[in-house]
Amino acid sequence: MAVGSGNRIMNWVCLHLVLVLIFSANAVYCGTLVKSLPGFDGELPFKLYTGYTTVNGSEMFYYFIESEGNPKKDPLLLWYSGGPGCSAFNGLIYENGPLAFNVTDYEGGVPNTYYYPYSWSRTASLLFVDAPVGTGFSYATDASEYATSDTKTAAQVYGFLRTWLNEHPKYLKVQLFVGADSYAGVSGTIVVHHIIAGNDAGVLPRLNLKGYILGCPRTDSTINENSKYVFSHRMGLISDELYYSAKNSCNSDFYGATTDEPECYEDVQLIARQIKDINKNHILEPKCTWASPVHDGDSARRSMQEYEYPEDLLRSPQEYPEFCHNFDYALSYVWANDDDVRAALNIRNLTVFDWKRCNKSLDYTFDVASVLEYHKNLSTKGLQVLIFNGDHDLTIPNTGTEEWIKKLDLTVVNDWRPWLVDGQIAGYTIKYSENGYRLTYATLKGAGHSPQEYKRREGYDMFSRFIHYFPI
């Protein structure tokens, strides 16, 4: 489809929807500019649009933030979160976007937000989507659509992106990057594959894909899971004796330990007990817990890393000091379930009754154990790639990320070195290249899972340098 034709169709669609709005009580949006939000002082100093894009029987909700730099030339970054089932709200508020909660002064009610200056939107347009359907404010009009998987999520996100760009053709001209973090590293990699396959097949309009960005990405089940044991040993969480005993008895495959291999199984179970009270998202931060009965009787303490009960956390906020990372998460439930906030975001009534930051009840099939072969194939396509990890992340450790990158067998062009922000070491980086394909890997020193939540300023500098082809 030509761009001019796309514009005429867009105009016709919007005219049709306006007529529907006039003659129907049910409002439908082409994408609405949000000028203010409850809890934010004054008008938003950036352009935020929200809306829905139809993909088969699903209505995919998005937040779009136009670049605060030069939107006609700055790249477009599609971003969604992992889980699976975690809302792109994470990116908007905690990671990449221009908003943040005022945690320090919270006294109840709708939490206040403020403008965060080191947003990725300073230098790129950001398209956050709640994916897969059932995540955040995305919902299905066909109940069968709620059953999803790794492959279906990838197809759905690709369908969303292509439809959204058809509806907003001016962004077809700018450079496109696909971004995802954590478990979305699986489907996000496949989305990139779909874009290239569509372009190669001549599907129009052609998407101007330049590369992809993955933060602490789930990539290969065996590598990612085994890396937790290597990381725990390197960080001094388990003893040399126990680690080497397990390494020998399990033949370095801790993930595959079963009761059929009693010595290996016993060693792995002992390691699990050694690290069970460590905060897996950031090993140096406290694990937020409170007295709560559990069914198995193993412990009277339940971790908020696995279960979030914001009502419990907010009931007596003075008992949960600011250093409890999950207090920030709890505020999202209050904010996103407030009627005034929903009205400001143009959320359709009676579609999502109870918003969750991460929906753990998705009907989800984990049907892709590894996307390593996808990465190997993509390494022949001349893309620009950024992979990054926090170096205190036990959920998806940097040791595993570094291992699978080495399996791509790329040529090192800039060897391991520190990278700096304001004259201080912000992490370490290494750059690979092969036939026009360039992969930059970076750690964020002191960061957990996901890295930008802990090092937002450093995360912005890393992104800004990469997206404009400067060395990190």
From TrEMBL:
Keyword Membrane: no
Organism the protein comes from: Rubus argutus (Southern blackberry)
Similarity comment: family membership: Belongs to the peptidase S10 family.
InterPro entries the record matches: AB_hydrolase_fold, Peptidase_S10
UniProt-recorded name of the protein: Serine carboxypeptidase-like 18
Key words, A-Z: Signal
SUPFAM superfamilies found in the cross-reference section: alpha/beta-Hydrolases (SSF53474)
The keyword Glycoprotein is annotated on this UniProt entry: no
Chain segments annotated as transmembrane: none
A biological process from GO: secondary metabolic process
MF GO annotations: acyltransferase activity, transferring groups other than amino-acyl groups; serine-type carboxypeptidase activity
Signal peptide (UniProt feature, chain positions): 1-27
